[in-house]
User: Fold this.
Amino acid sequence: MAVLSTADVTLVFSSLCTFFQETETAVSQPQWPENGGQWSDEEGGAGMDECGLAEMAEEDEEIDIYNNETFGMDMDTEVVDTEGDPTNPLFQFGEKPPALPALPSLSPSSPPFSPRARPQLRVQGPPGRRGRGQRGGQAMAQMFEDPAVVRTVEGRPSLQSLDSAIVDVGSVSYWDDLDPDAWMLSSYERTRHASGSVLQDPAIVCVMDSHAPGRGPNYLDSHYPFSNSSGRRGGLRGSYSNRPFGQRCPSQINTMLPSSPIVSRRPFTTQQPYNQVGGLPSPRPCPSTPQPLTPKMMQLRFGANSPRPSPFYSPSSNRVQRFRFPGPVTQLHPQHRRLLSQRQQRSQRKPDSWDPYCNLMSAKEKEWIIRLQMIQLQSENPHLDDYYYQEYYRRMEAKLAEEELGMRGKREPPKLTTPYVTKMDSYTPVVHIEGSLGQVAVSTCFSPRRAINAVAAHCPHEELKDIRQQRLDVLKKIEKLFMVLLEVEEGQRMKAQVLGEGEEKGLMEKTEIKVEYIYSQLQHPDLEAEEEFLPCLLVSKGKQLLARLLPFLSHDAALKVLSMVTSHLPVLMSRDSDESLPVLYPSLRIVIGGMTFSQLIGVLKDFTASLPDSSDGSVCLSLVCQSKFGLSLLYALLSQGERLLSSDVPLEPSIGDFETWTDTVFLVASQLSQSALVEPLLLPSNLLTLFCRYLDKRTIHQLKSNMESATGYLALPS
Amino acid sequence: RTAAPLSCSSKHSTKEKHLVLLRDGRTLIGFLRSIDQFANLVFHQTVERIHVGKKFGDIPRGIFIVRGENVVLLGEIDMDKPCDTVLQQVSIEEILEEQRLQQQAKQETEKAKVTALKDRGLSIPKADNLDEY
Assistant:
């Protein structure tokens, strides 16, 4: 077998071309010295134009056929009966029915060349047939402009036009001695050809594969081995012409591009298993590669020469390529991993239905992409950067743990430990051009589209601001403080991890500073001491902010917040349109739990304090009874008082505390028994015990029934 | 975190179809053969599924190569799960007709809205391209 290089092939082609051209021109020139007598006399008089036109006409026909095949209008199937069974894949491969008229535009002189220059089968798309197809198709095309739809609607499209996969499968029948593996390889080489280059970038490969040494030139060298096998092409032209691609393009195009996809369809087999058929004149040539392929090298290679699952060597010898989780780059959440492995098992259990394209991407390639994407997901702070993923799996875990609670008791859920990765230098995206309004939008790989931040125009005089502006200010402030709060919470979470002594202290300090900052910022400087927190607190997000801040505050600061809340309770309750007050309850309850008796009394006084414009102190209380939050707060306070009283801890009360206490209790009890109560957020269990000690049976009974009716269950098991 | 590339590992041998939603609203279903880091996809034996109301229709499309930036979401179709959908498959002509009617109705309401606003001296700037911001 002659082995030709690319250069040789080009030479062959050009010589062929010139040969054809010469013959064509020879036809046109009547005074061709040697063979003038061979040509028909008609052609003798014909000028160059006619033959040129014939050439063009033929090309036009080729293009038309190609277009027809690609874009539909296979109407002929029903229109022309004489064309035989349309679904017969052989149909388009040269079995021209005798009923079809010969190409009228073909000049008689060209037939001598056409069998050689263009395979016979190409002729099978005569304009007559095309015309018929077009006529039928135009009506359909007007209704649906989509050729795919047209094709489907027509109902019986030829297999080839539908899917090249089917085409490929259909053409296998021509290759009798071809086994599926070799055929797969051919299609792989075709498809892999273009994609191979990406994976052959040594830089990327180096990043990927740390355990495969000795790569390198393998890829690039052996990327175009089939240029060596082009010598075979001539012999196979016939069989190539049977393929659908072949019918579209004359085989001279095959010769034209040695590295074209069409050519690379040639089954490119690995040497070892197919050595024995190397000598066969079958369509399975054994290419001689520049260097002998060792099994190890075969494993390492990507791109066009990537080994297919063959029994001898491959990255994964079994069809079901074992999925290796990406390496130490970034960890998946344990739940996620479990899900994937479950899915893996499930799919492995299913019987393998043979899918010719199922292994288009090798395991290495898949892993490469996965690793690449995982690299992008690395972060120091996954809980912040990848919040939704983390939260989702955390909740799933919690739910599972809850479900298993009854069965196995509390089990320690698997902790997610993400390896600490130093983040790259953070890119400061702010680009400010002098004289511009605000910032300029700069696109980078980190922020492809950067929205321009609106720079707020600051009003110098506070009094001139209108209400809306004030509200906007408050909202903006809350947002900023929230960001700081998120950092504080993050610090808290980090503290849970094992840190060094010095680090932990530094972290604590930083957290403290931030907490102080938020606390001070929440207090509006202008208003009186009592109403400091009010603006922020009237906004629901401000309530959330405060609720989350409370655990971080010192006891005194927290107490201050609590007293402020209780003293402004009427305002808060009335302005709480979206019922976001209850968000404060849990944090406040914890604060209450740490109060001393005196502090408690002080706070309770606010509950019973009379409003300036009403003489009756119980006005406030009746409002409280109607508010979930207010009532729950009251209950919590009373419960705390009862707890303190019934415990052995010395109370250290101030003067008048006990009186205030009893007064409060009486007042509250009478109020509670009279007015309708709403269901509180939490009903402490020691409330009735408290009331029992101070009140008479009747009141207690009334109280109890009132409370029970509100909550729907017994306040105390009697 | 994308589940797609990890679940892509399951396209080894079993017939696992994938569904992709494109930015222009098209839904494609087919065998996902290849993927790269930009989420460019190679779909095989693709079918474009058009949904109108409770009906849907499939148009076989062949091989699709989707540029990654046009992908909104990609998911795996679990063949094992019981298909208890209320959706009803209809022929292509029917679904296209339904789609045409739907578009027509939408256009008419839109036109009515615009004229109504114009009468009142208002005009809402239309976002010609939703992606521009």
Notes: The mean pLDDT of chain A is 63.
